[in-house]
Every structure is written in structure tokens, then in C-alpha cells.
Design a protein that fits this description.
It is built from two helices and no strands. Helix content is 68%, strand content 0%.
Amino acid sequence: MAAIDRIPADDWTDQDLLTKDEAGERLDDEIIAVTGELDRLRAAGIGPLEQDEVELLTRRLDAMKTARETFRS
């Protein structure tokens, strides 16, 4: 097995890491944005083309809400 070359020092710092609070805040912002987009699509009327977009956004929103709950536990 070949040896793996290591870089001289890690290329990340503590500032690169999100805290749970920061990750939760980012999720909150994205949940608001996606909810607004869904509201906009629904207000404009959902045709066959928009239905796929609404379904994907709804699934994304549900996943983000589930992830957000893990940060509250």
C-alpha cells in the first residue's frame, strides 16, 4: 500500500467550523427563503411545469425543518 502524502499543516481553522447555533441560524434563513418561494409559486398558480418545482422545494423544506429540529434537541 502506498504512503499517503500529508500536507505540512491542516488547511482549516476554528473559524471554518460552524457552531450548532450558527448552523441553525443559517437553516432558519433558508427555511424562510424557501417558504417565500413556495408562497410565490402557489400565488402565481401551479401549472404542470411548476408542480415539479413545488414538489422539490417542499421536500427540501421538510428536510431542512427536520435538520433544524436536531439543533434544538
